[in-house]
Design goal:
Blueprint lengths: L3 H18 L7 E3 L6 E5 L21 E3 L2 E3 L6 E2 L12 E8 L9 E9 L1 E6 L2 E6 L25 E4 L11 E8 L8 E10 L10 H13 L1 E2 L10 E2 L5 E2 L5 E2 L4 E3 L6 H11 L1 H4 L3 H15 L9 H11 L4 E3 H8 L4 H14 L3 E9 L7 E9 L5 E4 L11 E2 L3 H6 E2 L20
Parallel strand pairs: 4-5, 17-18
Antiparallel strand pairs: 1-12, 2-3, 2-6, 4-12, 6-11, 7-10, 7-12, 8-9, 8-11, 13-19, 14-17, 15-16, 19-20, 19-23, 20-21, 21-22
């Protein structure tokens, strides 16, 4: 007779085998943000018929333009002209996009990423699903947004879950958005939207044996050196991540997962890192090109100041759930230090660079450091350079770890020094 412990082991093994061979659903983009998507729009005069947000409406006479659309602001692909009276512009603009039949798989969800200035009401197949910066009650073409969006408040792509009861799986669907300004004399208008599927929830990942050595190095020593690659199955759930009795990761935030076979976005980045063009460059030029790509891929369309909010949204939505490193790009086009440093390590290893993944604190506001992660690159002469793709972005600023600024500002998790100005540290393989 099989013991209970052995039976549980066999069941877990069978589950692991089943998960490894079963086809995995990945997120899909049904509507891309930016210039990849055209929208029908109506700017007046007057207002569209009452059925404008439904599939029965004929929008063939409406003009179309590529997103983002609006006036008076940067990053626009399609610009509207509201005439010479800048103090009396129409308050409302209407947008529509019809989607061909797109069935959802079992367990999939839908999420909108909406950027609007100033307010909006969003409809799916004529059903209102959300309001952004708009008052309650009946909305008319003369309704104004609750407040004016300006300055650093501009450019945020809000994540909005779409109720599946509003979606037609067996016929075409219509996305419709009416954008309202805060006043007739408003100086700018902006609209952009993406629609993505969310794959069915996956179980919290179990860490395979081949990933445990790398994880132990990073979690106990806070350093994954150039001599160790990041294996598939490696997870990062933050400093407070724990493994339960079954070896599954548990965390209060998203659990980053390295899963090359099932990560299409990561595959693109690794292909870039392996490319002949990159291989032909000197080591520091390769570092620079990788940093530039990560900055481009992990910076929201609205700019760097939206990094924190965009990642916070992902953290809340995927708390205690696996999120492949490529999905960070696909779901939010945003990444902070924990995402960027891990992606840099993966790409640098692929590009033939001697790279390390480091976790500690950065001294921004003394006396205590703030949690941070970064990378090192070791040159052939033994010099170790610090690479911080989060704070430095695409700037070419690769300082030796013996540099006084690095020594002062990049610390261990307990705020003790990681580095020293002692030049003999230059060739040390691992802190």
């Amino acid at each position: 007779m099989i013991s209970p412990a052995a039976r549980r082991y066999l069941l877990l093994a069978l589950l692991s085998l089943t998960c490894s061979v079963a086809p995995m659903l990945r997120a899909r983009s049904l509507v891309e943000w930016g210039a990849a998507t055209e929208w029908k729009y109506f700017t007046g005069p007057g207002e569209p018929p009452a059925e404008w947000s439904r599939a029965v409406f004929d929008d063939s006479k409406w003009p179309s333009g590529k997103a983002p659309l609006g006036y008076g602001t940067a990053r626009l692909t399609t610009k509207f002209d509201f005439g010479s009276d800048s103090t009396n512009k129409p308050v409302t603009t209407w947008f529509r996009r019809e989607l061909a039949k797109s069935s959802l798989n079992r367990g999939e969800g839908l999420v909108l990423l909406l950027c609007v200035d100033d307010g909006a009401v969003v409809y799916v197949n004529g059903r209102e699903i959300t309001r952004v910066n708009m008052p309650d009650g009946k909305i008319s073409p003369r309704s104004i947004a609750k407040k004016r969006i300006k300055g650093t408040d501009e450019g945020n792509y809000q994540r909005i879950r779409v109720p599946l009861t509003a979606w037609n799986s067996d016929e075409k669907n219509v996305l419709a958005v009416e954008v309202h300004q805060a006043a007739p004399n408003d100086v700018d208008c902006f609209f952009d939207l993406a629609l993505k599927t969310l794959p069915p929830p996956e179980p919290r990942p179990a860490v395979p044996a081949e990933a445990k050595a790398a994880m132990t190095a990073y979690y106990k020593k806070h350093y994954l050196g150039p001599d160790m690659k990041v294996p598939d199955g490696y997870v990062d759930g933050g400093r407070r991540m724990e493994l339960d009795a079954e070896g599954r990761a548990r965390s209060g935030r998203e659990i980053l997962l390295v899963d090359r076979p099932h990560d299409a976005e990561l595959a693109q980045d690794l292909a870039f890192a392996r490319s002949k063009d990159l291989a032909a460059l000197a080591p520091l030029d390769r570092v620079q090109k990788i940093a530039e790509r990560i900055e481009q891929r992990m910076t929201p369309p609205g700019g760097r100041h939206w990094l924190g909010p965009a990642v916070d949204d992902l953290t809340v939505e995927f708390a205690d759930k696996p999120l492949r490193i490529g999905d960070v790009v696909d779901q939010g086009q945003a990444g902070v230090c924990r995402h960027r440093s891990l992606l840099f390590k993966l790409m640098a290893d692929e590009a033939g660079l001697k790279a390390a993944l480091v976790r500690g604190n950065v001294l921004v506001k003394p006396p205590h450091g703030s949690p941070h992660a970064w990378n090192e690159v070791q040159l052939d002469d033994g010099t170790r350079l610090l690479v911080d793709v989060t704070l430095n972005g695409a700037r070419r600023r690769f300082l030796p770890v013996t540099n006084e600024f690095v020594v002062k500002h990049y610390l261990k998790p307990d705020d003790s020094p990681w580095y020293s100005t002692n030049a003999t540290l230059k060739t040390r393989a691992q802190p």
